[in-house]
Amino acid sequence: MIRLRVLTASTGACTHISLHPNEFTYSTIQSRLAAVLPVNDQIILIGPPYKVPKDSLLRNNETISALRLGDEEDELIQNGRHSLEPAERTGSKRIFLFSKRALANNAPEPPDCVLDPAPGPLPMPTQSDIPPPPPSPSDVVETPLRNALELYVRQLMLDVAKGRVYADGADLRLAACRKCLSEMVAIAHALRAAVSNLSDHRAGAVRQRTQFSSDFVDAASFYMGLLQKFELRAGEGYVDETNTFSVENESLGSVPLHPSLVAAARSSGRMMETLLDTVPLDREKAWANKCQTAHERLTASAEDLEAAFGTAVGTSSGWNEEAQEDLAAEEIIKMLISEVEDADNRIRFSQSEKNDILASNQSEATRIMSTAIRNESKEGRAESAFSSLEEMAKSSSSILMTMESDDNILSQLSQRVADAKSAAMKRMKSRLRHISVAQSEIARVTSSVSVLQHALLQLKTDIGHLEHVVELPSSYQSFLTEIQRRRAYCNAFKSIFDATLERLNLMRADEIKLREAFLRGPGKHLMPAFYEIFVPTLATSPAVFSPQLPDMLEFQTLPNVGSQSTQYNSSSTESGSTLISSQVREMESNVDTKDQSVLVSADENSGNYDVMMQTMSQGDVAPCRKDDKAERASLKYENAVLRQKLEQAGVKVPPYIDSHTTTTIHPDENDSMDQRHKEQHRKISSLEAELERVQKELEAARVASAQKEAAKPRPNSDLETTQQRSDKISHTSFEVGDIGLFMPTGRGRGGKRIYLAFHSSCPHRYLSPDCIDGSPDFVLGRIVYQEEFVAGALNTTRNPFGLHVGTKFWVLTVEVVKKG
After folding, report:
1. Cα–Cα distance between 555 and 487 in angstroms, integer?
2. Contacts of 810 (CB under 8 A, 6+ apart)
3. Rounded Cα distance, 200 and 439, in Å
4. For labelling alongside 400, which of 179, 325, 487, 701 has CA 20 to 30 A away?
5. CA pseudo-torsion sign 518, 522, 527, 533
6. How many Å apart are CA 478 and CA 226, to the nearest integer?
7. Tally of helices (H runs) and strands (E runs) in the chain
8. Mean pLDDT score across all residues of the chain
9. DSSP states of 170-219 as a string?
10. Band of the pLDDT at 322, cuts 50, 70, 90?
């Protein structure tokens, strides 16, 4: 059985309950305390920390041990220590019972404490309370001497009775004081529990308010900025007083739509020329006004919450004053405990000793009377007996006076203890009422915080719709890039399909020729059994393979937005164009090689288009053109994918450049590229000599510049110069010491990702697989070694990247600077 002590908070009374370990639950404790308070009127706290107990906590062995330790500490005296030591320091726990009705505003005042015996004089016995002497034997004669002696003895017997009353009264008064002080200690502990519970509520409210305030400040700043940006975006045109272009402050009315999008809108009967025309402006402005009003209301509610929170939680000075008052009340209890213990050690033992002296005097008086009666005939014995009894009577009277004085001291002490408990109960009622009101206010404030948090989340959802308008310019650019990538995909898909189908048809034509040669040659000498029994299909033609490509409806719905992607973001165009030197642009304007002027890459299957029948179709021009077109379309698709990834990563990329006019063009113009294909080949042979001459001139100029540079003083070392020259990302050439940006393009042998260098007219620079772990989205590294290879047969270790047989490629080993 588990024996528990439950302390009533309002009176300090102790209730003992015994429970079986299986019955040690919160509901069982409530039912056992129903005789003290109704179940619906009970508030039970256990601690520290003081909370409503759970069944799992009650059945914990550590909790049971801590409760037993608390019972031991509640003894008033334990090795010279009082029981008001902080429970947190000793690890003890207690169970307190609070009444809900006692916390009400109209709760009755607690009754005054009255001790038993009550303070004041004790009821004393009289002569009538003293039993008469036993009857004298028949042979004993009643004499005046005998009667006189009996009067002394009866007086001494009365003194003994009074002494016993004083001695027992001291024990009763001290026991009542101890019990009263024990209840006062229980009240003090209960007040600590209530204050601790209030502190927990206050701390939780402070944490919740602090979190809400932080979230509200951050949200308010974001919302105000978003509303301001919305006003700028909703303008008809961009007005910048500083004459400095800023995409952040650009209005939607200043962003023109691509002509193909404008034409599509007109074909559907709508007029849309700028991004602003795509926005339901009136509805968005009405929604913005609604969000603005909601934000203002939430701000006002947050200010009201701060005021209400200050009232509910109070100030630290108020908490300190209440804590000081509680400590002063506990000091009174400690002082009374000390006085009671002093009275116990000094007066109680003194009263007992004096009572023993009175009893001894009474016994001695009885003996003297008996001796005097037996020697009544002897002269002088009566006078001696009367003299001794008179002295004993005076001594007993003196002892009784001192015992009465000590009893008065105990009476006054018990009165102070009773008054102190009465004051403690009244103060406890007031403090519990104050704590109850504070907890109710904190609960209301906490509820308000929860409501405002929900309102803040709702406002975030509502105002987030305006973010669509604010982010529309950047989303529009991503839209253009996505359309370019999808068009590139459709072109690449159709080109690869056409090239593959062309190869299969050529392969079948060659097979027909070979079969006819066999049948006209060695086959004509075979017996019929070879045609009829062994191989019935020996004289048949190869099967016809004519798959049908599904109709590319998506491509027909995609607008051609290639010429607009760089007109809008002029800063991106200027930044990208500076990545190519003026000499390279001049040579590219003379040599019509559009595929070399764009960013290119190679996928793991980019070289698989011309290997099926390359030994049989090397002399055919049409298949080569089909393969070239398919490879160009594939490279352009990979180019579009790389551009989209770089733009999403915030990297500015160079624009598409037309080799004749160096103006922005769209990469999907495959038909025009095919028409100029032959012309490019004719120009190449005639321009090779010109290119060689220009290279010689450049080399001569470089030698002359190096000689001049060598004659000048060198403020920095070669290592510093090389380091400064290598800090920028290289894309037109790759040397040891340069910085390269490597992007994933597919997966090679073993399923590992292939990384190709971001480049312009410098293809087939692959990152060594030994340089990285995992599959990052990009790798930025400084080249420490590069090795040149020639692609061998497909699906072999000599061609790990799926290139055309005989294609040169380079594997770069880098020191990784950054990866993501």
Report:
1. 6
2. 734, 764, 765, 766, 786, 787, 788, 789
3. 10
4. 179
5. negative
6. 21
7. 21, 9
8. 78
9. HHHHHHHHHHHHHHHHHHHHHHHHHHHHHHHHHHHHHHHHHHHHHHHHHH
10. confident
**CA 441 vs CA 266, 305, 309, 314, 796: distances in Å:** 63, 12, 9, 11, 78
Q: What is the pLDDT of residue 445?
A: 87
Residue 32 has pLDDT above 70, yes or no: yes
> Using an 8 Å Cβ cutoff, are 159 and 362 in contact?
yes
CA distance 15 to 71: 12
320 token code pair: 């300190």
- The pTM is what? 0.56
Cα separation, 308 vs 311, in Å, equals 5
Q: What string of DSSP letters covers 91-111?
A: T--EEEEEETGGGSTTPPPPP
SS3 561: coil
Half-sphere exposure of 584 (CA within 13 A, CB side): 16
Q: How far apart are CA 237 and CA 244, in angstroms?
A: 15
> What is the pLDDT averaged over residues 203-228?
87
pLDDT (tens digit, 9 = 90+) per residue, 380-412?
567 787 888 888 888 888 998 999 899 999 999
Kindly tell me the burial class for residue 245, based on how many C-beta atoms sit within 10 Å of its own C-beta (0-12, 13-18, 19 or more).
Answer: exposed
Running DSSP on this structure, what letter comes out for residue 591?
S
Which structure tokens are listed for 664? 């922005």
For the record, the structure tokens of 487 come out as 């068009």
Contact 369, 152 (CB under 8 A): yes
Which of left, alpha, beta for 246 (phi over 0: left; psi -120 to 50: alpha)?
beta
Contact 639, 581 (CB under 8 A): no
- Tokens (6 digits) for 550: 């599904």
Q: Label the pairing between strands 753-757 and 808-819.
A: unpaired
CB 10 within 8 A of CB 58: no
Task: Answer for the pair 591, 657: CB distance below 8 angstroms, yes or no.
Answer: no
Tokens encoding 791 = 């692609």
Phi, psi torsion values for 548, nearest 5 degrees = -105, 125
Residue 665 three-state SS: coil
